[in-house]
Amino acid sequence: MTQNVEPLSPAAGFYEDESVGEIRLAAIFRRGFRQALVLINRALAKHDLSPLQYHLLLEAGASGAEGLIQGDLAELLQTPEARVSLLVHELAERGLLETARAAPDRRQVRVGITAEGSRVVRDALASQRAALADLAREFDTPWVGDMLRRAVQLYLGVDISAERLSPESLRQH
């Protein structure tokens, strides 16, 4: 026995007001952001990195030859120190990080990236860029920049217009 199901009519009674356009734009922006995160995470997985491991390697690499204190790394990653300690240990075992006791307080651990860690980060970054470039090709490029600018302004409340982001204004920050 087949049952006929009536589709919902446009007058189904769900709520809608003048904010629907703003909400749709926010939904599109959020959907694109989420899709980009999924692609980024897949690219990282190809290099056997979790997003948190990658972020840790980025911060260690950005610190240069000085490295950084493991406790500071926990703050930068917004992650408990115990979790960061495990991540540092795992990445050091893989040869991607080095650790050293900091003088004069030998209780502090200084963390730095290795040459291999730097190579892995560069490769992961290239994979992410390639994945995001493929995603960007799906868009109609003449209006993407304007759409992103308006979405960021609406969704985040941040003005990223060309006038606001002039080289002079960036030097002031």
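That was protein one. Protein two is written in the same sequence-then-structure order:
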Amino acid sequence: MPEDRPDRTFTEYHRAHRHAAGVQETDAPRFQIPAMGDRYPRSSLPALEVATWAREEHPERFEAFDLALFEAFFGRTEDISDPLVLGRIGALVGLEPSALSDVLGTGRYRPMVFEEYLEAANQGIHGIPTILLPGQAPIVGAVPYPDLKRAVDRALAGTAAQRPRDASSGAMVIQEGTAFLDRPTSG
């Protein structure tokens, strides 16, 4: 649950996950390894509220904002629970800091954030990031890129085998708007 916890600090668990992420391929994002005991963001709620606002109201800026949040937290260990930090990150991608501040002040997107959180929890998702691929257990946390690529390749191969084929040409039939990697399947 995205709760406010002012006593949070980086633990060995956080360091281990960042270390695993930090030994990725050269084109992977950079991860800063914080010292144990360094201050950890009080809550993910402010960042989630602002990200939801960006996704809903400024979809053309959402991807850039999402990446900027990732880099701020994992790459520079910034406190993404701080409204001033969020305002600065938003401004970098063209979001108006005063509008962002209003979003946090009104709590307008908080119910949506909690609804999405509960939906994920009901599906067994309790960690960020979690990647769901058909026919496989959820992939939670930072995993080496080659392992993630193998999992995606297996999922794509399995999904491609299940896709309908055109009777005359044998080509796969792909319907517009169909998402093949959106939820796990049993198997």
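The chain has seven helices and two strands. Keep this in mind for the problem set.
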